[in-house]
């Protein structure tokens, strides 16, 4: 659109007209309030009768309309109070508009143009998410009021506003957040503290992490189970879990072997001959041990002596003749091939040679057994801890997490299709300590069962390394909620996010001056709402939220230590961290003493 030179003359008329409208917008309400104030004063002090509507006279000459009224009181009633009321109305209107549009109201940062407004993500806000919770959870259907934590998992506030954004208890989520970008303090810990049902957490840290921050609080809700085969928290062994409980079928044994395979090699290497063969041998031996109710450590004895016919006899006794034939064929095959396959299987299960690790997966006198089927109907919490690159130890962690989610699925089917209350599964550091091979496939139905997984990764490529390109793409596509924090340094992924956020129209104004006068032109152009470099530079404390069927939203994250009750939680966390340190020192003391004696 182009304005002619004469348009500059019209600009003056436009300014004058707007000024007139502004003056009227102030004078008319002020004079009307003055008339009301004067009549109210006259009525309250018996200083005259009701005066018909005369706003101009009330504002300019109130003493003529109410001559009997006190001069000071009349000045207050017709000038000061209307001015104060008008200012309050203007400020109130501005505050309401800013909150409605998401541009203020106590938020930390101004909303980015083109990102989702309140109306764009209405299904994730309080009213809609509460209504959805009533429909999903029969226990809440007739409740008069519902606590916010029972409606969904807090993700943060819509940027620049007080509107809480929550994912519902049928959503499944992937969070990609770099270290120290708030993935634990702003996502994992608040979700655990607000969970209405059982909670599963995998992690590679204990002190100063979600474990210490939530251990005491969850202990007040239900029983806390901690599986710590590599002594990250240096906790006493107060549980054991039988990984062979679900291996009494060929499928179950294959899944268990798959966890040992995934913990040892990346997705790109799992398809070669040796990997497949080693995994097959493990699954056959796991099946035999489970059928004969043996401890998993017996598998290591069979791997050490391929000629041992015990697993063959067990499989035949339980009518698994085809599996027995396959195992016999491998044992009696060429020695170099057999030895290579068995050595591969030994490497995958090598962590079971460590008696400290194996003790968590074998019966222990006086130590209670953790049973997934009972856990999913409780309000208990399960902490699964393993170091990065934990090999077989991380295989046990992944197998236990998988067993819990499968038990939850079975329970949901028995309960009519969905768990109530839902179960929260926070798979923190999933690419390091919880490599469930078919997790992307599980994402397609877990949410509909009331099982809410949140897989937390440090980068998109980290997920590709574990599940492959197709697997990670499948998980990304199946996730109904995606949270992207600061620290995204992958240019391809940042550009992908930028394209998903989209473009918006930007008004460009240009002015030119010539002999005939000044002309102004206005044009529209498309511009990325958030270019890749801006995504890379996301400040800490913010995150992008992609929810199915909605515009991308920018969130202000809410760390747990700024929420109500943080003081008590901090004290409990500090006490737990101190206890971990004390246990670590106590364990180290004998070793140092032995070293001194030897010296």
UniProtKB/TrEMBL annotation:
Q: Which domain of life is it from?
A: Bacteria
Q: Which InterPro entries match?
A: P-loop_NTPase (IPR027417), T4SS-coupling_protein (IPR051539), TraG-D_C (IPR032689)
Transmembrane stretches, start-end: 15-36, 73-97
The UniProt record lists the keyword Amino-acid biosynthesis? no
What keywords does the record list, in alphabetical order? Cell membrane, Membrane, Transmembrane, Transmembrane helix
Q: Which residues form the TraD/TraG TraM recognition site domain?
A: 422-540
Instruction: Give the membrane topology, semicolon-separated if more than one.
Output: Multi-pass membrane protein
Q: One Pfam family this chain carries?
A: TraG-D_C
* Compartments in which it is found: Cell membrane
The record's listing under CDD domains reads:
TrwB_TraG_TraD_VirD4 (cd01127)
Q: Which PANTHER family match?
A: CONJUGATIVE TRANSFER: DNA TRANSPORT (PTHR37937)
What name is this protein filed under? TraM recognition domain-containing protein
Q: What organism does the UniProt record list as the source? A: Streptomyces flavotricini
């Amino acid at each position: 659109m182009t304005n002619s030179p004469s348009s500059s003359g019209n600009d003056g008329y436009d300014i004058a007209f707007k000024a007139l409208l502004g003056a009227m917008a102030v004078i008319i309400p002020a004079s009307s309030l003055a008339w009301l104030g004067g009549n109210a004063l006259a009525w309250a002090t018996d200083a005259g009768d009701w005066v018909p509507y005369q706003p101009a006279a009330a504002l300019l000459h109130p003493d003529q309309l109410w001559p009997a009224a006190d001069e000071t009181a009349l000045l207050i009633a017709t000038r000061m109070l209307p001015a104060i009321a008008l200012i309050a109305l203007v400020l109130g209107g501005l505050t309401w508009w800013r909150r409605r549009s998401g541009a203020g109201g106590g938020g930390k940062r101004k909303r980015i143009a083109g990102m989702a407004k309140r109306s764009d993500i209405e299904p994730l806000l309080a009213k809609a998410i509460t209504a959805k919770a009533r429909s999903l959870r029969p226990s809440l259907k007739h409740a008069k009021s519902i606590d916010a934590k029972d409606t969904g998992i807090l993700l943060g506030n819509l940027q620049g506003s007080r509107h809480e954004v929550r994912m519902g208890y049928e959503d499944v989520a992937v969070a990609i957040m770099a270290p120290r970008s708030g993935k634990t303090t702003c996502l994992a810990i608040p979700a655990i503290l607000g969970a209405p049902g059982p909670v599963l957490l995998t992690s590679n840290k204990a002190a100063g992490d979600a474990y210490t921050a939530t251990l005491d609080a969850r202990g007040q809700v239900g029983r806390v189970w901690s599986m710590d085969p590599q002594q990250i928290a240096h906790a006493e062994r107060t549980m054991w879990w039988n990984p062979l409980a679900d291996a009494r079928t060929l499928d179950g044994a294959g899944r268990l072997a798959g966890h040992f395979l995934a913990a040892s090699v990346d997705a790109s290497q799992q398809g070669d001959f040796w990997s497949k063969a080693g995994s097959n041998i493990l699954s056959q031996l796991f099946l035999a041990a489970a059928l004969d109710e043996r401890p998993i450590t017996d598998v290591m004895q069979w791997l050490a002596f391929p000629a041992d016919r015990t697993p063959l006899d067990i499989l035949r006794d339980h009518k698994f003749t085809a599996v027995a034939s396959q195992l016999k064929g491998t044992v009696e095959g060429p020695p170099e091939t057999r030895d290579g396959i068995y050595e591969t299987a030994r490497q995958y299960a090598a962590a079971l040679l460590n008696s400290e690790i194996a003790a968590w997966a074998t019966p222990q006198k006086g130590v209670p057994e953790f049973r997934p089927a009972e856990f999913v109907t409780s309000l208990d919490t399960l902490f699964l801890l393993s170091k990065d690159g934990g090999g077989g130890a991380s295989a046990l962690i992944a197998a236990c997490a998988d067993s819990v989610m499968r038990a939850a699925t079975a329970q949901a089917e028995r309960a009519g299709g969905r768990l109530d209350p839902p179960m929260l599964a926070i798979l923190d550091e999933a690419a390091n300590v919880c490599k469930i091979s078919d997790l992307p496939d599980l994402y397609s139905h877990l949410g509909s069962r009331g099982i809410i997984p949140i897989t937390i990764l440090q980068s998109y490529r980290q997920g590709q390394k574990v599940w492959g390109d197709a697997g990670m793409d499948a998980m990304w596509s199946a996730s109904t909620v995606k949270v992207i924090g600061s620290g995204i340094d992958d240019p391809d992924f940042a550009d992908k996010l930028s394209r998903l956020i989209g473009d918006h129209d930007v008004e460009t104004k240009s002015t030119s001056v010539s002999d005939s006068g000044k002309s102004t032109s206005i044009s529209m152009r498309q511009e990325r709402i958030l270019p890749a470099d801006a995504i890379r530079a996301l400040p800490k404390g913010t995150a992008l939220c992609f929810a199915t069927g909605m515009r991308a939203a920018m969130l202000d994250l809410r760390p747990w230590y700024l929420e109500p009750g943080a003081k008590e939680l901090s004290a409990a966390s500090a006490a737990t961290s101190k206890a971990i340190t004390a246990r670590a020192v106590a364990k180290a003391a004998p070793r140092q003493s032995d070293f001194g004696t030897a010296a």
